[in-house]
What we know:
The complex is a heterodimer.
Chain A: E1 8-11, H1 15-27, E2 33-36, H2 42-49, E3 53-57, H3 63-71, H4 73-76, E4 80-82, H5 89-98, E5 100-105, H6 110-158, H7 162-176, H8 180-198
Parallel strand pairs in A: 1-2, 1-3
Antiparallel strand pairs in A: 3-5, 4-5
Helix pairs in contact in A: 1-6, 5-6, 6-7, 6-8, 7-8
Chain B: E1 5-11, H1 18-25, H2 28-31, E2 34-40, H3 44-52, E3 58-62, H4 65-70, E4 80-85, E5 88-89, E6 91-96, H5 97-105, H6 114-130, E7 136-140, H7 146-157, E8 166-170, H8 176-181, E9 187-191, H9 196-201, E10 204-209, H10 210-213, E11 220-225, H11 226-231, H12 233-251, H13 256-264, H14 277-281, E12 283-287, E13 290-293, E14 298-299, H15 310-322, H16 330-339, H17 342-349, E15 371-373, E16 380-382, H18 398-403
Parallel strand pairs in B: 1-2, 1-3, 7-8, 7-9
Antiparallel strand pairs in B: 3-11, 4-11, 5-14, 6-9, 6-10, 12-13, 15-16
Helix pairs in contact in B: 1-12, 5-6, 12-17, 15-16
InterPro entries (chain B): NrtA/CpmA_ABC-bd_dom (IPR044527)
Pfam families (chain B): NMT1_2
Subcellular location (chain B): Endomembrane system
Amino acid sequence: MIRKSLTVLVIDENHIRASIIEAGLREAGHEQVTVLHDVAGIARRIAEIEPDVIVIDLENPNRDMLENMFQLSRVVKRPIAMFVDRSDQASIEAAVEAGVSAYVVDGLRQERVKPILDMAISRFNAFSRMARELEEARSELEDRKVIDRAKGILMRSRCLSEDAAYALLRKTAMNQNRKISEIAQSLVTAAGLLDSGES
Amino acid sequence: MAAEHQINAGFMPLFDSAVLVAAKEIGFAAREGVDLTLSRETSWANIRDRIAIGHFDLAHMLGPMPIACNLGLTPLASDTIVPFSLGLGGNCVTVSNTLWAGMAEHGALPDLDPARAGKALGALIRERANAGRDPLRFAVVHPHSGHNYELRYWLAACGIDPSREIEIVIVPPPFMADALAAGRIDGYCAGEPWNSASVVAGTGHIATVKATIWKTSPEKVVGVRKAWAEKHPEALSALLRALHHAARWCQDPANRGELAALMAQPSFLGLSPALQMPILTGHLALGGGAELTVEDFFLAFGKAANFPWKSHALWFYTQMVRWGQVKHSAAHMALARDTYRPDLYRAALKPLGVALPGANAKVEGALTAATPVGSAGASLVLGPDGFFDGRIFDPDRIDEYLAVRDWAML
């Protein structure tokens, strides 16, 4: 007997993260996946889609509205409960830490839903890691720009070579136990102040 | 000196988180040896979840929320206790300009009188029903909230059946003003500054306020994970003392400017300091140029505002029963009563020699004027605490209270 595949609804205001989740669900063989980015008219959509599982990001301020709607089964036809079962503390913690929550229709067996939640947790974590790495790359680029400007100032004002200017920044940073980019930023700020004083 | 106690707390961006915020930012917590970490949350569901899994030891909560948790009415419910109340009052019922104009035609005046406003609203609702129009849609912030219960209490006492004659939906407080302006809802009951936000935007009118529906009535509380409280009684006591000092500081008119500026910061409310002033002064712009000063509009400290009255817990419980959220039983009633813990409040504050109420519960609605009451060693004033319809809530006679059927509900 072939089991009817589960219908999954993903509610996430973050479009990129939502498509990462959607891709993961499709790779896992779930073909009936709907993604919603905002909750306008959500009651009607849920009534149309009749999802077995609803995955939602914890940053969404509409969770209270959704939970209230799930409890009034008049709107959504079938009662929906929060997935996280008291017996599975590890899953709850992993989900909250990853920033995701799931709701399932009453009576759906836990082992059918757990792989979906596990997948969502790992994809949410992967997304956070990616966002963090992007942020790090961005700040590294900013650091490099400010260091270049500081080197330029030193090269002009003290007639140093590029290497010597960098060595001076590095030595100062080591002596003061600070990051090179911080020393560079101080220098750029100070130079800016002196310049505007002259003009 | 390193802090003796580390405490993690969650809060929602609402003005009545002020006592927690001031405890941290003005230094009252540090003075009691508490290193308090505050995390802003986006939903009450998140607060409940993070309490349950231990991310938070305690949190800013809606007064009925810990009771709903203990009664098992919510998912991921964990045993939660209430040793401190974060204030009395502070909510309003705000309606769209269109609805206000309709209510005014039926006799509503900009005087915040709940009976007059309710009568006008009832007449308008019947007129709409006769014309075959859709029912009005009101929003509250959560099904287990003072907002939901006071809105329903007000309507029912004015002969309007809130379950049938209007629709009640849930909207997060920061979205209320937008939903009203966009016409998705016709009115809402929410805490400040989200009512003044609609008035300032010119898209709403304050029809009545919590402080006139039920004077000096309970609102937000500090909900504490019971298991944590039992394991860390000294940390909890130290925090309660810090909150006591913070609440007194918040209530002092001399600190209004500083408090408004603090709450205006992006990490707390992220709204202009001017928008924080109505709740601090009780002087409200109602819309359409009308202004009114409401006595005891919001009390952060005075009139035993921080005392977790068991009669408050029990009144919330009666409303859960009344609106079909839970079945009435002796066991359920005991769970609700035991959620609020005046004993912990007393134990923490006794060393300070401050005024403490003599009882753990009171007959709500019995005081028609401010009344000095006997307390342990210092003076304390309570009330007026009346309901606008004159009903009395005696926590020792709950069956009788629940047995009275409202004529509108027949």
